[in-house]
Amino acid sequence: MRLIHHMGGLDSCRVFKIRGVRDLLHEFNVSKSFSRRQALGRIGPGFEPYKGLCIEPRERPDLVPHDVFLHLVKKKVIRTGVELDCPNCLLTEWHSLNDLSEQVSCPNCGTLIDSGPQLSDDPWRYRVSGLFARTRDQEGAIPVTLALLQALRCLDARGMTWLTGMDLSWNDSGTDVKGETDLVVLTENYENVPEFLLGECKTNKLIDGVQIDRLIAAAQRFAGTGIRTFVMFAKAASSFTEDELRLIDSRQTTDLNFILLTSAELEPYEPYENVRSDKIRSVAPNTLEEWAGYSRALYLKTPPEEVWRRHFEAREKAAG
Questions:
Q1: In terms of C-beta density within 10 A (0-12 exposed, 13-18 middle, 19 or more buried), how is residue 6 classed?
Q2: Do 270 and 229 share a domain, yes or no?
Q3: Which of 95, 100, 223, 262 is 20 to 30 A from 240, comparing alpha carbons?
Q4: Does 292 lie in the same domain as 260?
Q5: Each residue of 110-139: pLDDT tens digit?
């Protein structure tokens, strides 16, 4: 939520759709500076699919990597500064543009450094700001924004309420259970039936059975309430592993559906605009139920009739 607020709102997070931007933020941190050339070297490769992306008003028809770089600077995703050598302790340190003057103090030994003689024709070195340097896989902040952007694109016409980073707790047979979800979305379908979504978002780390079962257990708390419940797994990587898909597929039920997203669905303006499949009828589903159907068709192997068969067998077994 802090990341979204920093950018100026959810719709202002579109720049993170660009894979090179995510690569740049992943590679560098608050203690590792880089040049403009290095930044463009990360943003530029494979840029063709993003030329039509709107991140801010522009005069030219196509977005170019340099526009993206300047946008990141303006949004303070990356900070401008210089690297100066201390003549006393002989260490090189980065100094932000805000701190720069004719003389700056060495953060290690306190010696005053004359900055002017060390400035070259292109002296600027950049660092990822502290907030964005922390958005690593363990927090998943950038994948969360990408997933919410697509949810907004698909569901906003029907009304959508969302939150991020929610702690969950409930009582199960006298035992207090705790969990968390990266995102929560509340919307409705064509019949005005409430639809509720819980989500787990990653960049590259694997989604394991414990995380899947945790979200399923939370979702099942809504059984019998009249609210349709869905679980989303979103990865900014290019694909799920076979093990991830097997774990998710094996947990399909008749009243719990999964929405699966990779970079193929997270990066375009419309989730399925680049998908060529007769199983997909629209570039953007309008309800969570439609979205889950598209995910099932693209990623999961167990057909709905098999899920129903397992359901009836489990019910008969429980009845004795």
A1: middle
A2: yes
A3: 223
A4: yes
A5: 889 888 888 887 789 999 987 776 544 445
